[in-house]
Amino acid sequence: MAPVSPRTEGASRTRLKAARLSPRDVLHVGSAGLRSRPVRVVLSALGIAIGIATMIAVVGISASSQAQLMRQLDALGTNMLVAKPGEGMFSGQEVKLPKDAPGMVGRIDGVQEVGATGDLKQSVRRTEKIPKDETGGIAVKAATERLLDVLRGKVAAGTWLNAANGRYPSVVLGHVAAERLGVTEPGQQVWIGDRYFTVVGVLGPMPLAPEIERSALVGWAAAQQLLSFDGHPTAVYERSTDASVRQVQKLLAPTVDPRNPQNVDVSDPSAALQAKAATEGALSTLLLGLGGIALLVGGVGVANTMIISVLERRHEIGLRRSLGATRGQIRIQFVAESLMLSGLGGLAGVGLGAAATGVYASSGGLPWVVPLWAVGGGFGATLVIGTVAGLYPAVRAARLSPTLALHAA
Amino acid sequence: MSTVVRLSGVTKEYAGGVRALDGVDLTIGRGELLAIAGPSGSGKSTLLHIVGTLDRPSAGTVEIAGFDVASLTDRRLSALRSQHIGFVFQAFHLVPGVSARDNVAEGLLYSGLPRARRRALAADALARVGLADRMKHRPHELSGGQKQRVAIARAVVGEPALLLADEPTGALDSASGEAVMELLHDLNREGATIAVITHDTEIAAGLPRQVRIRDGRVVADTARGKVAA
Fold first, then answer.
1. What is the extent of the structural domain holding B191?
2. Which residue, of A138, A327, B21, B82, has the fewest CB within 10 Å?
3. SUPFAM superfamilies of this UniProt entry (chain B) (predicted)?
């Protein structure tokens, strides 16, 4: 080291200017207090972590459920409409759709596929020994061949109705119907009307048409020949191009029944799924509020820790002032400490919340979605809380008289 | 001989009418080694604070390293401390859990020097006080005398115009205390201006100049041959 020499006269006339702390130095002085008291850091960051984790998990879990529903909607499409007979002008009046309704609907611009079902006044039973009234909630319906394509349904086992088996006493069961009847695989027989029908297929789940899941479906022609079906459809399902959905919706009722369009109810089964997806978000507001309160309590904890930290470190504050720290530099040291404290809590909270969402998603078979805005928002909130919580203790620290700070007991 | 400290008519009154300093005149020239001595309650701590610019006088003028303290903002006073004044305290005030070298480097934290330079200068300063082999030791691994030497290294690492030592031997046994005083003598021989504040008349007697304070007044100053009124 060069010998300690007094400054030259020239040097003492230079302008006095307080040097700035580099970001790294701010980090250094801000973290010094944290490093010396790790247990306290963990405990006070825990409050923030719990708050953030709650918020992230609430948002993440509902986003994951929503993503699952949207994924389902994507697979099923939102371009399917159903026309059903509505209520008649006079109550109790039975309304029927015209026999040629499916053919007419098929001619609307944009319609790609049409299928139909017709309700039969029959019940399906395992044997003729079971009383007729025990339907088990299973409807018997005539179905057109195109129905499965329109619904984008899948056959879980066996085959769908086709031109060959549709004319004979064969039946396809929805998966709920099959379960209730105790039919596990194609080839078994069930009793419909006055004879046994052979089960040729069992369908998979059909979220867009739950009524089909609970039905036994018979070919259109077989229904007319064997089960005295009158040929009037009770539901016409159509799928159009995405662009023409609104147009088709307007035309559907007048096309199905040009004379009495008011007798036709047109519905969009995907709307129900969309509504469900929307409510996934709404239900979580309360929990989000709870997370917010936890966060607030965490912030109070950080403020408390900082005030104690300032009281305990009066000597250090006095020393730093004697070493040439400005009030601003003392202030920034304690705000940085508070920011780091709550930032640590925020990071831990984001990790915990994302992990909780991951556990929930993987146990429920959902996609794992943690929205970036939630991560950013949660972390941003901790930084705001850290600043607010640290500001008052920092201002107190900066206002401490250096002489009192140095000589405090 | 140029002056480092010039106090004239400095009075300090605390709320409640306690007059800690009463019209103190004091001039310290460059390269001096002096004792500011007096019993407890004499006002020597207040004098230290005012000379160290940690406190402002109620009346009178204070000039440190050529700057009139009254005209400086808190920011510029802080800069004055970081560039021109080094402090050594009775209780050392080292940062716990941090190595000796980093403790010394802390003395340059507010100087604006880059970190690598601060650490290099800190190593030099530690070597200068005879602790080259204690760089990585933390305060609790050092003896009292070593701690005080680390604190002295921290105070002189920025080559201040003035070194203020407040009872530097107060917490040490006599052997360590003598070693610390020896170090201060060495630093002074190399050109440092040092004021030692002490109540210990023996220590004061060992220094070239003694300023005696009682009841807030300078009652004796060997430089001026002033005798108690």
1. 3-221
2. A327
3. P-loop containing nucleoside triphosphate hydrolases
